[in-house]
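Bumping with the actual sequence this time:
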Amino acid sequence: MYRRIINFAVFTASVCIALSCSSSKHSGSKRLPGTWQVSPVTIDGSNKDWPSPYPDYDEKAQIGYAVSNDKDNLYITVETGDPATQLKILHEGLTVWIDRTAEKEEVTAINYPIPVNAGQKDQRPARQKVEQGQGQQGLGSDWLQKQRMELEDRVRATMDGAKEYSLQGFKGCNLQFPISETDTCGIVVRMSLDADNELVWEAKVPFRSFYFKPQLARPDKGKAISICIETTAMKRPQGQPASGGNGRGGGFRPSVGFGGMGMSMGGGPMYRSGSRSTPPGSSIMEPAYKSTKTYKKTGLAYQE
C-alpha cells in the first residue's frame, strides 16, 4: 500500500512537471500583433510607402523604424535625421538581424552598406572642419548650424559609396552583392537621403529566403519574430575626450545575443526624424562614436 502511494506521488509529480513544461513552451510561443502590408513596398530608399511618423523610435540610437509583411515578404525600414548617425551608418555599415524563432539569436542578417575599408582614409574637406568644432558648444547656434551643414555635406558625399551589401544566414545567397543586382534569394535593399535630409533604409526580404515556408498561411498569423538593428561606432579622433557612450563595438558578427551592449527598446509614436539640434554639453559628432542595438519583437500579420 505504501509503495502504491509513493508510486502515485511520483506519477503525479511527473505529470505536473510535464504540464508545466508544456505551459512554458506555450507561453513562449505567444501570438503577437503584426502589421499587414496591403500593397507591396517599392524598395527605393523613400519613406512614401511607410506611415508618417514611423511607429517606433529609439532615442538612444536616434533612429525610427517600422516592420510589416504580406504573404510573400517581410518589409523593414530604418530612418534617421541626425547627420552624425547617418555618417556612422554610411561609414561603419548598418546590420539588421532577423530571427524567425524570436529567440534573440544573431544568425541571419543583412549588412548594408558595407563598412568603409579600414585602410581607406576619408579625405573629404568637411571632415577636418567638423572635427575641429568638437568641444566648442559655447560658440552659439550659428556655429552649430554651420557645423551641421558641413556634416550634412559630408553625408551626401559619402552616400555615393553605398553601393554594396552582404547577407549572412540566408538560404543559399550568403555573399556580397552590388545593390544594382538582385541576389538569388530575391532580397532587395536601398538607401537614400530625402528632401528633408532624412536617411531612409529599406529592405524587402522574401520569406522563402529565411522562414520555415516560402509563403505565409493562416496558421502563421501572430507568430513572433525578432528584429535587431545594429550600428557600429566610428573611431573617435585621437586626443578627443569622450562625453559618454560605450565606445567602439557591435558590427556584423555572428553568435552574439540580441541582449548585448547598447540594446534599447523602440519608443513612442511621435517620431518623424532624428535629432535636429545639439543637446547642451555634447558635440554634434557624439552619436557617431556610440554603438547601438535596437530590438523589436513583433508578430507576423496575415489576411486572406
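The C-alpha cells above came from a reply further down the thread. Residues 33-299 form one domain.
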